Fold these 4 entries.
Entry 1:
Amino acid sequence: MRRIVIALLATAGGLVALLGYRTSWGATADVAALAAAGEPGGPASATAPPSSTGTSTGTGAGSGGQRTTSTPTPGSSSGTGSSSGSGSAASGSSTSSTSSASGLRDGTYTGSAASTRYGDVQVVLTVSDGRIAGVEVPVSPDGSPRDRQISQTAIPRLVSATLSAQSASVDFVSGATYTSRGYEQSLQSALDQAKG
Amino acid sequence: MTAVRSGAERAERGRLVRTHPVMGTVASAHVVGPPGSASPSGAGGGPLAVERAIAACFAELDELDRVFSPFRDDSAVSRIRRGELALEDADARVVEVAERCLEAAEATRGRFSAAWRGGFDPTGYVKGWAVERAARRHLAPLLAPDGVAAVALGAGGDVQALTAPGAHWTWRIGIADPRDRSRVLAVVELADGAVATSGTAERGAHVVDPATGRPAAGGLASATVVADGLATADAWATAALVAGFADLFWIAEAPVRSGLLVHDSGAIRRWGGGVEVVSMGERDDPLAAVA
């Protein structure tokens, strides 16, 4: 993760995200999509001028279902995957500015859409306490009917490690079954009382 | 991306919440009114209609528990297990569940089974099925254009959510961190759908691999599945736990929308629409955890 932070510093918000898509016929294609940050949507509104561009490609061949690894480097990445996949990333603009020791200002940053063979992919970066808390792909490919189906599915979005259920403003909590006694101590019980 | 509704906008709606102990856990019913409403019933019906529907919903859960609980000597399931009642002579709901269990066993290639505890035991299927059934039969009829905007019924960590057509409402379902259940790892937003999580957090390793008869050993702390209905989501969450962290091949064919696996180590895998979504994050970097 440290390397990513360095990469971000080096490119003023440039971010490499490796997306692995497993398709219905079992083949796997990895798309390395680079999206640089823009449009801060988080608690901090950053104002540095846009400045980052980058490209990425993902190519490879192999057996289906293998998880791949990559070594992100500033401004570019290569992902080796199971079927060939290539992503030509759109240039992105970054608006992050330094505010903490790591140089990352807290907030949520939405990257510009990157064009891939699976459609446009957009990446959201969340910075919390000056560190990268998560990388999300809220906009899924929207090209073929199959991809449209992906977009309509509610992919679980990771939340910051420090976020409580209340601040995440959830209505229910899904977890392994609790007993009626366990309910009393559960997040669900707190939510039921807070919202009822 | 989906706009995250502000807490203020979500709070500006009447909401009625009722809870009810049943099936060894607690069920929670939430009924949400239209924007700006003071009561969950909005313009249509009345608060009494909402209360009645929730009461009927809970009564149905109680009734289904009486029929299906293997912990009650007089339940249909217990009588079948003792050989006092033939399955084909049982209540139509029992026959339906038995058929659904067989279908789920076939669809999951045996990873979900209603027979692992010796004899007929659909316990692992009934809760999700019962909650979905009760929600659709008793809460869904409340939904109206100017009235109740959304309803949801949860029980023991599984949720069935429903929203009126055209209503601007999105349910937000948190996925609990199996290692610290005071936290949520992820949020699923949906209008209609179900979220089920199977895990070992509260009741120990209670999910058994039908193939071995032993507790599932796939390294998973929990498996969450999102599907149209809770019966399906619940069965596939159980199957996912048996399949383990390393195996996501099944998502391509499963009738589910999306989901999330949490490894004992805290590593996470997610998918949607039959494809895995790999992300890199501070605490869940799957590349670092699995490589």
Note: The two ends of chain A are 41 Å apart (CA to CA).
Entry 2:
Amino acid sequence: MRKITFGGANSLDNFIARKDHAVDWLLWCDEAAAVMAGYWKTIDAILMGRKTYEVALRGSKGKSPYPGMKTYVFSKTIKPEAHRDVTIVARDAAGFVRRLKNEPGKDICLMGGGEFAKSMFDAGLIDEIGLNIHPVLLGSGIPLFHAMERQIDLELAESQTFKNGCVCVRYRVLHRQVS
Amino acid sequence: MKKDRRKHEPKIIVYIATSADGFIARPDGSYDWLDRPHPKGDYGMPEFFKSIDSIIWGRKTYSQTLEKKVDLSVFGSGIKHYIFSRQPTAHKSSDPSVEFVSEPIKQFAQRLRARPAAAGKPVKDIWMMGGGEIIASFLDAGEIDEFSIHVIPVMIGEGIPLVAPRHRTVPLELLATKKFPDGVVHLDYRVL
């Protein structure tokens, strides 16, 4: 089954951007670039919510934000005909993603803020979490994780310390056995 | 917030565990998710305990600890406990090692850092126990020197964040990381 990874670069207090979406605090380095390049080869599909898509579209000046990747945007309001580079999924996100995981293909990346990820966590569809913890406290902003009612146990798969003070950690989600 | 602190001045260190999603406790203050078998060496906690001689507590965190019938002596003998409270006279403790404080943070921190060491011994560091509100207040006052965090491999979903949200950016310098066999990751930062 295809694995879904959620994550991104976060501040120590778990924000992925300032309130105004600014990511001026992000540090880039060869080590992070190598990790990302390696990861990029393992995926062929990207999932995101509407808000993340809109931010990505602004970044790519309206063109497909991730050319070469099958991109799925989960939104009840976006009109599919105006966004032909991506697949808009308007209904039953969990059912859609569950089917997608069972289709042949590489692994899948879930991008963006925690709102859409929360529904995927709730549905038990996320298999891994990858964080690039930056050495900064932002105090406020767009959170990586949204409040969830249940606890999710993790297993540390990997942790790597970069020269610039970022710590890259990867966790496996320990899925609950459904009895 | 550049600090001009002398090299041998004692540091105020936030020594704490967080969940992987960044919480120090559940919304009701409970931390049952920390009850897990500790690996050999106990995450280096015994060494840390030896390096401090005072603990700063927020009033809520202190009360919750007492409610759990935790004896303060578990943190070592000869440790002085400072409990921050807006109404210090409302609290009493028969324990001579406990002092309730309502002093301005800056003034208190200066007093604490300047305290003399025990005869013939180096002056020790200060453990900031938390919770998130008092950590934020000390951080705002420029009186947190380091964060020493054990990240537990669990997402608790909701709870009390490490630092109460504010509108500010605090740059940190990563000092050290350590990975434990049970998946706990230790992160040490200096506040810049």
Note: The CA atoms of residues 29 and 164 of chain A lie 7 Å apart.
Entry 3:
Amino acid sequence: MRWKAVLCFLILISLPFQAGCWNAREIDELAFVLGIGLDRGQDGGVKVTVLIANPSAASKSPTGGSAQEKSFYIATAEGKTFFEAIRNMATFSSRRIFWAHNKVIVIGEKLARSDITEILDFFSRNPELRLRTWIAVSPGEAEKLLAAPPEVEKDPATSIENVISQRVWTGKGYGVMLKDFLEDYLSTATHPVASRLSFDDSGSLRLSGAAVFNQNKMAGWLDEKETRGLLWLKGEFRSSIIVVPCPLDGQPLSVEVVHGEVKYKPQVRNGRPQLTVMTHAVGNLSEQACKTDFTHMDNLHKLEMSLSAVIKDEINAAITAAQQKFKLDFPGFNRPFHLQRDKEWHQLVNKWPELFKEMEVMVEVRSNIPREALFAIPLKSKKVAPGQ
Amino acid sequence: MSQTKENFYIGNTQLWTLLASTIWPTIIGYGGGIMAREVSRDMWLGGILAILTTFVLIFVLVYTGKKFPGQTIVEYSHGLVGKIPAKVLGLVLVAHFLLGALQSIAIYVHHINDFLLTETPFIVITVVYVIVVCYLVWHGPEVIARIGVIAFIMASVFSVFVFVASLQEINLYRVLPLFDNGFPAVVKASLTADSFIGYNVMALSMLLPLAANQKKVGRSAALGLFIGGIIFVCYLVVELMVMGPHVTAQMRVACMDLVRSIQITTYLHRFESFMLALWYWSMLVQAGILAYCAALAAQQTLGMSGIKKLSNAAPIALGILLISLTYLTARNRVVFLNFIEHGWKEISLPVAYGLPLLLALISLVRKPQTNQQQQKKGRR
Amino acid sequence: MRIWRKNTGWVRPHETAILEKLTKQGHDWQGQPLSTSLELNLNVVRKVMGNPEDLSVREFTLAADTEYNAAVMMVEGLAERELVNEQVLKTLMLDVKFEKPLSHKQLFEQIEKYGIPNVMVKQNQTMGEVLNELLGGETVFLLDGVDRALVIASRGWEDRSISEPATESIIRGPRDGFTETLRTNTGLIRRRIKSPDLRLEGCKIGRRTRTDVVIVYIEGIAKAEVINEVKKRLKRIDIDAVLESGYIEELIEDSPGSPFPQIEHTERPDKVAAAVLEGRVAILVDTTPFVLMVPTVFWQFIQSSEDYYERYWVGSLARMIRLLAYFLSITLPAVYIALTSFHQEMIPTPLALSIAASREGVPFPAIGEALLMGATFEILREAGIRLPKPAGQAVSIVGALVIGQAAVEAGIASQAMVIVVALTGIGSFAIPAYGTVVAGQLLRIILVLLAGFLGLFGILAGLSFIFIHMCALQSFGVNYLTPVTSALPNDYKDIAVRTPWWSMRRRPEKIAGQQKKRVAAGSKPGPDQGEKKQGK
């Protein structure tokens, strides 16, 4: 009996000396990658740019790090495939590249237009990376985008992440996670869409528009209006501002849409699909430049119709882009058919690309403006005019 | 063993928590991916169908078991089919349980090795895990049942976490329309799911004599299957909704990717290890009970019938066997996946579902003789 | 020693031989019957005890009549001298009256029946009994010509007064604690349970110490198997000395190899009374205030009497915090090591960067740091226990933090590790039972080593071993983790929470034998609940 205890003791004592053999790595020998940029390399290979955090400057309580010290640094490596490029980084990086905290994948336009199958394969197969990463395309080089110094945040990747997460406030940018992008990529009829990240004129980061993919190649950009339409079609539009021309004198008004809902009604007539898109928007009047008094119900109705017209315009822009400009079903119009017209869908699915181009889509928008924020009547000066 | 009394028993509540915590971890494995590859978005319907057919299996097992109170399936098959066929049957059952335990252990080791400890050698993780399982088996079914209660509590906590975290990802398009691929395909998928659930429920056939309240044992077993089945089906639905049927079909180990893709709060963004710590107990119980049934069936088949307690050498032999088998078969993930996806169904379904049905039919037919035979020969 | 007495003369030679034989080493004088000669008896006693200087022997004659010689023996320090003087010597020397033609035997009988005004007077025949009673503190009366002795109750020694138990102080609740005298302790329990079903059964354990041990249980509530098992195990003990209930605890527990204590001990009579009322068996041991209670389940070690006296919210919250604290104190260092050395993806990014920053420049790996800081804290804590009370507590906690801060600034440890170690230590302070805490320390070290080996999987394997062990551990027939693992929902009311008294209507399933109901139905209070129905 005693030898059992002695044996156990010896085994236990020798255990910690094995540490470091296999998977143990100290946290201060890791390089935390926060963002990845992928580009076409010089000689047709790939160029990978990673954004690595500098812990002493990036942490909340730096141990002796000065304020001027940069809290991140950029590293670039090239190779024939992604994995080779990534491993080539080890040739000059003093710490082990650690992918698990990666937040965003930025793909350069040139690479996006050539082939992204390898990217998708690598990032979903790898156990260190998550499927919840944001994926975005940048006009120009991803390397430049990642290298831009952030204004408030500690590093660009956090800025990008925050900008994408808060896209609902503007309603002009599109955000998609790798898992949803991959699901669209693998599906039978829908084409994937990625975000568009760029620099605006003053050099700061901007999320506006979207990138449409035809399977594994990028087909083109969507501008802001079309992106908004896309957001409406996907039912992701909420809390954004729509500028509506005032019904009586054409001056701009802001309506904050708090709730956007979309319902589809698919129909099949003579083997041809037809879709009715029914949108319902609920908004608040948040800013008016014109002097119309909207407590009168007719004025309010006119405003609501104005709003509906604007929304319908945006949605139509998206549908035009899908049906005529790109001829790709990226809004996912096949889904209502699959869901509600199951039997007909199985006959339509093989011919969907052609059917989609000529499909008749009717858009109906219904708006409601129940609130005008805090005001009851419009702001009107009651001063006496001079000369009276 | 550390029992003070000779006859040990499992309380009925312990029985259903044990069953529930053995059944739901079948989804933690290759089952999700395989079913998604077969029927994509209808896999949850296949799951529901599989659970319903397993209720029939439970009914059959309890019915046959009640005719021979106090005997496990290996023992009463002696009386039903004669000596030599019963030995063959016993060996088949031993192999079946052993393969089930092997799968459970292999799946868990794959999880650890592929996601958490990627550079550790396969054999190290296998050895440590098998040691734990053998330690559990050595203590006997009472202790396994008690750990089963703990496992059930952890599993409930885990399920709540997962379902709350996936609330923001509800996307009905990914689970509807119903029977998208047609009813026959769903039936085929349910057979796949059955091949994973079946061997876990067969453990019931070896445990029936130990239940404390023999009258209500059928009810407890059905309750266990029901609750385990609910978690099972809900998990399938959540997998579909969060990742989508195509991405799920891509993955080898779909559930782990599910857990990696959900997020409870904005700061705990990678809590898959915490989740793994919660469903670890259920997998341990599953491996433990299957290994125990294999060892007990082996002991009872090899002429030591009537023995209810495991000998002390059994866990050691079991351990060595499991380690070597796991190393040989499961080290190459591709080979293992092919076996599970394409070969396992044909082996498991006849044994898990066909065998009890066969025995039940025989017992219906030969009933008057078997009681006399049993009494003449005494309990061998 | 020979004393000249007028009537009997010198001690006869053959009696000397008897004396020599009797008092030879190894001779069994236990069963030796008393002789009719007073002298012989006294000399044997003196010889066997080696003429101790605290043995008082008073030889006298009854009622001043020289025909009847008698002697009274007692041990100073054990017997109460005043009582012996008043009740025995005074009555026998001065107040006793009898008719003259009376044989010695008849006189003896008369004295026994109405001669001595004491609650306990009984006869003894053998030398062994006389010596045992004498050494127990009773007074022995011997009459010349009679081969019996009278034993008179006279125990009385200096005892510690009843005071608040030092190890278990609470805010609300009774403040009396057990003392070192068995009779006082049984009295404290009897004060609380005035039912005639309360059984006290005594025995003496220990060859040389002959310590009084009493089993207390309530007939009808406690399980017969448990009672018999306790008696069986106590009878089995064959040891020289029992100085504390801990000796008995180690000799009757189910698994001596387990780190977890399987028998609970306490200094509080209300705790013992509550345990006995639930169906447990209490074991009281003389010369120690710590009383054992069996069977024991793990959850008792996170409970305190106070939980039952304050309202149920207080009790429930306190228990949950204690459970959390215990779990943290076992697993926190191991989890920290696993996360920072193996699974860095689990940590939220800002925290991961902070930890990485604080670990820069530290030479040791995380596991070395954990063991080092952990050992330092334990040393400080042990030192704090030995210091006088006011200084002790301050030294351990403050000292640990100060040393931790200094270590951080010197670059030996990282800040996160100091916090982890401090939390661990404080967590272990929250548990009322010391034995469980030490078990937790042992397990913590094992878990840390396993975590350094295989990360989270190592912790899981270690926890599995611990849980499997606990699920297999029995305490007098009851599993250690009852009722959580027995899935008895009725008993969940008293584990992590404390549901109100009107809701805990049945005793714990596995502990109580019969008579499970303890609170009548409809006991929930309210302003308009009306008269309570008569019921059980």
Note: The two ends of chain C are 68 Å apart (CA to CA).
Entry 4:
Amino acid sequence: MFVILLICAMGALGIEALSDLSDRTKSDLARADGITIDALAVFGDLERPPVVFLHDLHTNALEEKSKDCMTCHLSENGRLSTRFKRLKDAGKQEVMDIYHANCIECHTEISAAKEKSGPVVCGECHRKKPTILSSRVPMGFDKSLHYRHSRALKKQCERCHHEYDQKSKKLFYAKYKEGTCRYCHKKESEDLISERRISMRLASHLSCIGCHRKTMAENMFAGPISCSGCHDLEQQQEIEKIDPVPRMRMKQPDFVLIKAGGKESSGARMNRVPFSHKSHEGYSDTCRGCHHKDLKSCLDCHTLSGSKEGNNVKLLQAMHELDSERSCLGCHEIKQRQERCVGCHGFISNRRKQGEPYCMKCHMAPTQERTGVLTQTGERELARMVPEIWWAIFGARQVADIPKKVVIKKLVDRYEPVEFPHRKVFRALEKKIDGDKLAAYFHLEEGTLCQGCHHHTPAAKKPPRCGFCHGKPFDEKDLFQPGLKGAYHRQCIGCHDKMGIEKPVSVDCTGCHAEKKQ
Amino acid sequence: MAISRRKFLGWLTATGLSSAFGKTAHAGTTKHFEGHPDSLGVLYDNTKCIGCRTCEAACNRVNDLPPPDRPFDDLSVLDKKRRTDAKKYMIINKYDHIRNPKGPLHARIGCNHCLEPACASSCFVRAYTKTKEGAVTYDSSVCVGCRYCMIACPFNIPTFEYDSAFTPRIRKCTMCYDTRLVKGELPGCVEECPTESFTFGRREDLFKIAHERIRRYPRRYLDHIYGENEMGGTSWLYLSGVAFKKIGMREDLGVTPAPALTASALASVPMVVGTWPLLLMGIYAVSKRKEKIATEEKEQALADTIAQAKAEADLKISEAWQKAEKEKEKAVETAVRKALEEAAETENEESS
Amino acid sequence: MSQEATTANRSFITPFNIIASIIVLIGLFLTVRRFSGGLGAVTNLSDNNAWGIWIGFDLLTGVALAAGGYVTAAAVYIFGMKKYHSAVRPAVLTGFLGYALVVLALHYDVGRPWRLPYPFVVQQGTTSVLFEVAACVALYLTVLFLEFSPAALEWLGLKRARNLAVKFTLVLVVFGIILSTLHQSSLGALFLIAPSKLHPLWYSSFIPIYFFVSSIIAGLSMVIFESTLSYRFFSSKMDETHLKEKDDIALGFGKAAAYVIAGYIAIQIMGLGADNDWHLLGSLYGLWYLVELFGFFGVSCLLYAIGAREKNLKLIRWTAAWTVLGVIMNRFNVSLIAFNWQLPSSDRYFPSWMEIGISVFLVTLGLIAFRFIVTRMPILYEHPDYRDAHRAKGGS
């Protein structure tokens, strides 16, 4: 009967359940050399999907036939154009014809010679759903690579670094002003009035690969010219790393006094901050980490009250913004996210207002009012001396008297009291800050290390017990404070999870407290 | 006012239809139930949950549920996704590999104690009650077992004791209302959770807590409190480290409370009851009238025909009579004439 | 095993009787199993799929197909189309038996059937569409019973009671139409509360209207279908009037159905537009929806129209069967196939053989009852004592 058919239809449709096409990864088809050809996008909406072109595949194939880059790239002013068989994008039809004619012709030739060739049919290049996953990783130019280049080129910085003269519309070299390419070359090519700044991608490929090719032509060791040579993760990891990198000589100061600059210098209220530029150079992989716009001093743009050059970011924000990657405090916060710090520091929100007691940790050099106006050399001397004085006076770490074991029996119900190896844990934490100057500096005072667990209380030799603040949960008068049981478990388990501590297992209750025999 | 019957009926139909089949009953109302004042709720924060199943064990114990197939400290149970059933009011599901780099995230599945529950709205014996404390409770002493509440619940929570022949009940989380809440105690899961992943309190306060957590740790949380508006708002709220649909919670339920979905259909009932009799009796009256008129016309036609036939017959008869009269006269005349002529003849014969 | 078939005593051993007996025996066995073991012992229902074919088929489809009663009564008594008069009693009987079986099936499906009166006498859940359905179905069953009672009373020879019952006809018909409108549409309205579970092509705020209009279509078609079957099996019971009028009934109802189906398709399409669901038509469920709407309803509309114009009774009768299938399909789609469409296939529902067995059992009971009544009571013929009563009748 029809009714039975209908019931079967239910079964069939149920089984036909909308197939889930997501989450299908084809890791075996991941390549680093995929280039999306959407050259016609400048002329309007694309009629067909853009073509994914595998560059290394083609360069390797051509190399086997002893053909080089000139097969596809035209030369202009001694440099190869990155465009395919053309120097300019003349018009939609012309560009399209160039691609179609050349690609399809070459493929046809090769397949006529009975060799493996590429597609000739429209849909095989213009695929709706790409079959190749990109495994390209961005390539960075860190200090080690920079040093190797600088050494190989015998410190001829002008080979890469240039600036642009608006008036003469020419590139020129400015010594001691060599900044990162990214100060001018951004993500997209810009056509700022007559500046025609090309994108970082274009600039780096033109510059780097151009130079590497020239060097290789002279039979010298050079960097990669293939896509995967830079952009493949494995090959990236094979790039030789120099460690430690000798310090770059750019006439930069060793010690600096961070203060309000220029006209505002007399109006500053806070003590000035001595800053060891020399040490901090070693903490970042690139100058751009702090000198995010150019190599000038922070104070030139970030004034006390904010200025247009500094995007109205006041000096305070520039130095203290906790949620930033380039402010002083922001960078320190990021350092606290390492596994050995995060057990305690993970609980501290970076949306907090940093407390006043900590200001003096950096603001230790007396104001201009007290020292009088100093020369630049004088200021730098002051910046060098003040921390040394401080260390001399306060530098010795006081050893706190930590109890060996703390028995937590306040909430005993189904489990025995917890025998907490307090001293062992404390020593472990001490070991974790060993060797780290930042941690050592901020954890010098007695009781600061304790504040990881004994929080919301001043650093002290004998901090309050957890049960002195945490009591019954869900107190209407203190909405944000967990009860004692929650506090213990969140703190302990939270720290262990964040620091990747495998024993005790957080879901195994008996790992910390034995079950009570009923 | 002169109005044709047809027009009148047309208007009546239009009124009836348009009022019976209106789209929403919200036109003209601004009612929006935001919960009883000071009602309670629970905030579940899955960034604190470690998946230890202590809450499940507590729920089982407090509600006197039958022992589970596998013990509560067997965490391999979490390797499969489960749903609530007649023996489990609440379950935790584990989702691995959805948050880099650290650890799995969990989801709590159980009754959300909606502000305007679909189950309560759909129950035709009012077996569900939204208490003023916020919990949605179930009364098995009136339940007929129709399971419409299971159809209605958008979260698929109520479960049915299919194996019970004579006393099948719906089973679901009650926020430990009868066993704990009315005594001023905490629900079992809330009390037992070691990391206080469940925060209990007034619903308004839970929002403050949740928003403050999001404010303090924006990278840790998704900026959305599930249950704030979903299905008109629920008393059980959720914070999560990843998108909710990744942990098996539907994001496409909308903000309309369930009762509002059937409000217009129910509102049309009195309209139909009121207008249908008019409509039907009107049609009936019209059809009866048509019949009567048809009968009358038929009779009239019959009468006319008869009258006409009679008239023709009468005419014929009178004509015939007249003709007969005339002929009689003529005959009489002829006879008289003849008689006279004969008399004259006889006279003539006698005189000669 | 008597082979002697006298004119007065037909043999009990007929193919229908054998099969029916087997089904009834199995049905009784399953009934015992259901009530001693609970729903889980007999059905494939689960926590995700709370309603199965006992609701989808026995309730929803049963109510839709029993709609012939009110439609025919409306046509004859309200619209005054006297030439369909002989269709009233069979339609009312189908309706009455249909609803009786629906209520009987409900006793199987519900967890505690002895509590079915609770919504009326203990606690009223007036916010629930189901409450309204229950109230209307209960009242309508009563109405149908009263509408059917003259036939039974005539059979029993209770003249005074019969005459009294007949006086209420018009009131009952009006009441019946109101109740039918309410519960036919409310059965659809039951699903309004679950938009997240019903596929958007079937979910619409107009579901109540769709269900109501399709119940009219089902009623019209069922009357034609049932009259075809009655003629095939019970023609000896049909009197002159019946035989004379039945072709007119098929033609008239077929023509009416063509119009109503056309309207139904129009409002379905308008509903699609209102919810902007066009893009869903390109999916598998969309295809299924189109099969239901155009393959069944659309084709029926066309064939009814053709049949009515060319006075092709055979075409109309086959189309009636096709339309009934379409309505069944619609009820199945809304309650079972497009419902819970988002669940993975491992969580979807398929009825157990025992559920199907009970449904078949109930339908068989209905057929047996129908046969009993039709062969004894004045349904397909007029009782000699009341032959002219109908002529003078027609309401107050």
Note: Confidence is low (pLDDT under 50) at residues 18-28 of chain B.
